[in-house]
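Hey, resending since the last one bounced:
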Amino acid sequence: MHAMQTRPHFAFHKTPGKFSGRLLLAAVSVVLLFQADLLADEKKAYVFEATILRSLKVDVGDLELFLFSLEGIVNRSGPRLILANKEDGLWFHSWSRASEKWMEYLKERKGFTFVRLNSLEELIDTFKQDFAGLVMYDDRPEKSSTRLVAATLAGLENLLPVGARLAALAPISQFPVKRDLRHKFDDGDYLEPYRWALRELMPRCDKTIACNLAIPSWSTYIDYPVMRRAFCFSLNHQELVDAGGGEYLRKEQINDHERKTWKVGREGCITTDGGETIDLYKIRNELPLAQEIYKQLTAPAYIFGVGRPNEMQYTAEMSKGGHSYICSQFSNLSFFSKIPVAKTAFRQDFHRAENKRLGPKYYIAFVTSDGDAPKLAQTFYAGHWFDPSRGAAPITWTINPKFAEWFPVFFEYYYATATQNDYFMCAANGAGSPVINLMPDVPQFARASAQACTKAGLYYADIQCSDAQSFSLYAHNAPGIRGFTNCLFFNLDPPVWFVDHCPPWATYSALWYWKKNTPLELKADIQRVLDKKEPPYFLIVYPDFPAGNAGANWKNPDLPRRIPTLWKNTVALLDSSRYEAVTIDAFFDLIKQAYRFRFATTSIEAAAGTSAKLSATIRNFTENRAPGGRVSVTLPPGLLVGDGSGLGFPDIAPGDSAVVRIPVAIAADARPGAYVVRATIVHGRDTVCATQTILVAARS
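The structure tokens again:
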């Protein structure tokens, strides 16, 4: 039974004597009993197994749009409905046991009860009071844009979106048709329904969120946008320009800093969408309309869904509008968004920071990929969270900090079940994953991301960007972030970048989206990419989620998920005197130890009888001003310090650095060989040393 939305009002009159006390006690008891019943009712949710509807012989795309819009409307008032799908379910999913595991957790930890609905009739009858009627879209393929306009109306007016076949079914036909989009746009092209929706519906939508479907018939993730009253659309973001002579220029973003342009003929503009042949240039030059939608949203808005022609081009266009990409592919986010939690802000109290001492080792952070997408947090990291080996070796899990606001139960669950060897960091690129250097206001997005990280208890962030200037803008406007990674391939060497007095940016991710099978393969690849690197050195391993079992991809959801086992066994194969696995917080603490006083190179060459100019950088990673001082230099016989005027250094502001230059004279009779220069400073409470080797050659 649906929980009541109002509470009873009790009026009390002053009456002397014991009777008034008994009356008050009785009334309070009634209130408490009522509230207990209300809370119990609020924790009753319904489960609907969507595969029941296969027998209806209705198009799967029609069923998805109907069901997920219905779910979004129903869950607006609380976590009341979850749509389950079996192994052979109607829609794309990553790990078929995820819904089952969430329901177990909610039963055991939050007192939920789940009631199964066994037919479309039961589903409709249970929630019929939530629906104001129907919105009918046009079933014709050339008018499939009306489906997304219907979804927008579903969120705005609590209408169930249906085509003619669904509208004719008995449980649905009881509702009046409140909006009829059939033939409404016969005089316009495919895009006319969106133009109408921009004028008539966008002013009523939540302008901080929108939803784009890759194709109009794939709406498995639309429940949360419908619940939030988002503007919904399905537009191809490729750019086509008429070059004349029957040829067209196709322009696409291929990474964060490069665009590709090539000529295509008319046949290159033809595509197939659900059996419909579409001439993209003639009737669907859709990018200008997508850009207009982005102009009308409030930046930074969050665009749920996936898009065409590819992820980079799609994300690039929304980023130019100032918005962020949420790669949402699965259902039930509306349900998760309403689950009550005890906290509104989170801390990683389960993890105790370790005070590791820097040594001559290769330090490796194993960082999981794709945490910006809800699909990972929603499916227990595609099942890997339940690997019995989790906790045996340090793993850093990425997660979108906005989930602390939108789906706080994810943070509540993971922080409650994590081990000392688990750690969480902000996934690419903060509050969602836009293309950073294409955004018109990077500081604005960085501030929004930092605020979300503070709420989520995240102190390190993955910024996948090849542009140092954009990174600097981001980092300087992201207070509270202590270090950044770049888990893609843009910058491979050196392992750590220091840009414009920003926190360290660890960029050596030579093993990005690693997806092989065995610990022996991973060990070999680690040793290969670290070959000839001088320790201490810092490597990020960024695995794809099929890693350890290449068959365990999204299309084979029930194969074993064993990334923690893969990593534990890999660590066991590595020589612990040379390699050390660490979580990302320890990784950055060691980076700061390694780089707070460091020579520019590990070795230089010089001839006997000449001089060498050594350069060392002192960095202040603290939040306080570091006092200046002088560098003490210890040299082996055969080397002498030249003019020592450059050995002093000034006070260093937080996040800043100073360079000292050490001139070294090499005796004419110095024997060929390696000479180690040792420099020492007092840095805060510590004495910090740095060494450089001079490879002396015989005098020519």
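The radius of gyration is 30 Å.

Sorry for the duplicate.
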